[in-house]
Design goal:
264 residues; 9 helices; 46% helix; 17% strand
Amino acid sequence: TSHAIQLLKTNAKLLTEKKLTAEDIAFSLAPQLNALGRLSDPRNGVLFFIDDNHEAQAEIASELLSCNTERRKKEKEILKKLLSEIEKEKRHPHEDGCIVTASKEFLPGIIGLLAAKLTQVFQVPTCIFSETEEGLLKGSCRSIPSCNIFIALQNIQDSNKDLLLSFGGHHAAAGVAIKKENLSIFKREFSKEIFKQCSVEDFRLLIDIDAEIHIDEINQKLWGDLHLLEPFGAQNKTPIFYIKEATVLEAKVIKDIHIKLKII
């Protein structure tokens, strides 16, 4: 197992001697294993950890890296296309209270990731459907804090007995299956249910600030104290600090997803 972890760290370009943080596991190691289930055979992930043959582990590690790279590429391509299509629409997603779309191009393994990204960008519940060979639509839904997406789907099921073939999930995420010809009806009913729970005011990004901080307080001691609060996760979120009236001297985009700032 320790050798498998080292291979994952190498794939993620983490130093082999680096002590892993919750962030490393969530954003660098786990996605490699998840990519197998999205694009390939997830059982190889089990073999990767229980096989004592280092050569066999190295082969699977190579597959993990390849799958995760491919997953990122496809996710980026489809997301770019989706954003472009939404931009061309005459109606803003806030008017419908949701985003609902479907295509054969959407891989079943990444529609959840895409739904999460669009929800994050537009701050409205999102359902993205992948079309099966039988012509059914299987979707992945993500929501915002003010909307219980499971209740929305439950209400649709109660009032439209034949619309949902199946569904399940919880407050923030759900899966649903419908017939292809019912996509527009589903969007109409889904939109109705969203507005029963939300108003346009809810479609705004809210950031929970833990504390205001001065630049002089950002030092090695603070860094060490924050480490004592780890691991950060769903029930122990990473603290967010607010610096008032800071001046940005330099800004760099790193790997298309991070911004590095120099401020005073």
